[in-house]
Amino acid sequence: PSRTFHGSNRLLTSQIVSHYESINQGEKEVPEYFNFASDVLDKWTQLEKEGRKPANPAFWWVNDKGEEVKWSFEELGSLSKKTANVLSEACGLQRGDRIVAILPRVPEWWLLNVACMRAGIIFFPGTSQLTAKDILYRLQASKAKCIVTNDTLAPAVESVLSGTQFLKSKLIVGQGSRDGWLNFKELL
Questions:
Q1: Structure confidence by residue, pLDDT tens digits, 156-183
Q2: What is the b/e burial string over 19-55, where b = at least 16 CB atoms within 10 angstroms of the residue's CB?
Q3: Residue 96 and residue 120: Cα distance in Å, rounded?
Q4: How many domains is the chain partitioned into structurally?
Q5: Is 5 a domain residue?
Q6: CA within 20 to 30 Å of 133's CA: 35, 45, 100, 120, which one?
């Protein structure tokens, strides 16, 4: 049994609990490796393409001005693959490398999150309320090779760059360009 929510079938909480109980009791095998991007997102994309899953948004973002971004599973999957390519090619990141993202919850935040899962990159989120001292601490403690932020927070990052030894690339999410920074939207 399932309930309908905006035309799609969603698992009831009892079904989800039942699934995990069956894993705990050894009735279902836990995969050795699990990757949300390929094991869930890509599978839902395929189901959507085959018409076995209704075409509901995988991602729907609305800001305080009423602007919307709405992506299907296929669009989210494709954009996350492109983002993973930006991280591996333009930023030179590899599986196990770390990235610090200090952004408000804009669509790019979620793209980076899924792309990092897809590529095996360790994602460290940070609130946009961090001070320069907080940013420096996170960069040093995480040994991040890349930082992603916006135009507003870039000056705080720049003020602490001399104290970072592992940082190799800086991505900016925004419309303009900034010396020494890669522009995420242009690379995407």
A1: 999 999 989 999 999 999 887 899 999 9
A2: eeeeeeeeeeeeeeeeeebeeebbebbeebeeeebee
A3: 6
A4: 1
A5: no
A6: 120
